[in-house]
Amino acid sequence: MVNVSATHCLRIDREDDIVAVRRRVRDVVELRKFDSFAAAAIITAASELARNTLVHGGNGTATIDEVFDGSRAGVRIFFEDAGPGIPDIPRVLAGGYTTKRSMGLGLAGSRRLVDEFELLSTVGQGTKVTVTKWKRL
Amino acid sequence: MSNHGAIPILRLGPTLLVSIQVELRDAVAEAFQADVLTAIEKRGTTGLVVDISGLDMVDTYVARILAETGRMAKLMGTATVLVGMRPEVAATLVRMGYAMEGIRTALDLDDGLALLGHVVPRR
After folding, report:
1. What is the CATH number of the domain that holds A91?
2. Nearest-Cα residue of chain A relative to residue B59
3. How many domains does chain B have?
């Protein structure tokens, strides 16, 4: 059972918003006293995914949840856009899909930085990505 | 020195020294690359040291800007060394599969300058 203690919703409409997402995630993991490696991992993943939302989705939202699973604190981030979607998800997640803006690296790379990763995408409707990073005990 | 960007470029003998302390957004990144390349031409530089000890996060976007800058400098005959990468940044980049191959690195500014001293004879 995962409890959510706080939620931060941010719009991603322009490049400055990527910085804002990054800063908010940094604030949360600093408050929760994540170790510096776990903090860098989730901040970087958030940055990659926020940029994907902007570049491939056109715009979208990031919802940052401060979560607790009974023993560990964590941060869960949900990115959503109504962009063109991803036609070949396995290929993108294998990192082999490199557009000039390098969506493959961003998605495949951020997946390796987090503890939980979920990607839902429908062509013509949009993309939803949820990532969770738990504080090391 | 040329400074329409937010990142100062210092000259140290035949070497240019750049320390990145601010978030590299699109506009800043482009100005940074233009400033560095212009400075290389003006100053007849043979070495470029880019210090990133001030960055606690380097995503693939920033990594690409840094790698690109190194390749641009190389085309102009200038060797680049990236110095000061934090442990968290190194771990994160490798885990993402973006190890910045082809970019020469050194632990800190001292080592970076020493490395350039080997690559480029001092004038």
Report:
1. 3.30.565.10
2. A44
3. 1
